[in-house]
Amino acid sequence: MGIGAATESFPTGVELLIGADEIQHRVRELGSVISERYANQTIVTIAVLNGAVVFLSDLVRHITVPMEIDFLAVSSYGCGTRSSGEVRVLKDIETDLLGRHVIIVEDIVDTGRTLDVIHRMLLDRKPASLATCVLLDKPARREVHVHIDHTAFTIPDRFVVGYGLDSAGYYRNLPYIGVVKS
Ligand code: IMP
Ligand code: MG
């Protein structure tokens, strides 16, 4: 079995949007951009659980400045594929952000509400700088303006899965990003 085999076999009902090789190429580019931007500094990356873990784990391997990793878990009230905008912190980070250069790593920005709440919450902790790095930007559905410093891909208004993103908890393990056919 070749290394690309997983990319070629799609679970029933999933259509390819962004292939595994394209993702890896772009994540490597983002890692270089971040490494240059923070040259001679140390950084703290904060991944938003669970969706951003796959992206973070690939991204950090292309970051060459000294760095720490921490995790934040939030849940949006509401159900289905739409976030209600009420964000509750389920697990806080353990790192003191005072005076640190911080990057929030998120899987996708949809309405923008989740990232907006997280950004404001972490800004209160007085980091030296606070940037956002997202795998996917879905601008068509934005309700709240959030500043995104680094975006891997901008996508159309489709519900996507894979590379960390889920539908009812499944598909996070896919090495590519796909669209669930309705
Ligand atoms: P926002 O608060 O509406 O920006 O939603 C952000 C969160 O909703 C993300 O962190 C995801 O967990 C989830 N989400 C939004 N769009 C999708 C999607 O297309 N696939 C999977 N999860 C999504
Ligand atoms: Mg998420």
In short:
This protein has helices at residues 5-8, 20-37, 53-59, 113-123, and strands at 14-18, 43-49, 67-76, 87-91, 101-109, 129-137, 150-154, 160-161, 177-180. It is α/β, with parallel strands linked by helices and 182 residues long.
Strand order of the largest sheet: 4-3-2-5-6-7
Low-confidence stretches: 1-5
CATH fold category name of the domain at 41-165 = Rossmann fold
Number of helices: 4
**Average of the residue pLDDT scores:** 92
How many strand elements?
A: 9
Q: Structural class of the helix and strand makeup?
A: alpha/beta
Based on the structure given, which CATH architecture of the domain at 41-165 is correct? 3-Layer(aba) Sandwich
Please summarize the sheet with the most strands. Answer: 6 strands, mixed
Radius of gyration: 16 Å
Percent range of helical residues: 10-25%
Shape: globular
**Strand proportion:** 25-35%
- Bound molecule types: inosinic acid, magnesium ion
Highest-level CATH class of the domain at 41-165: Alpha Beta
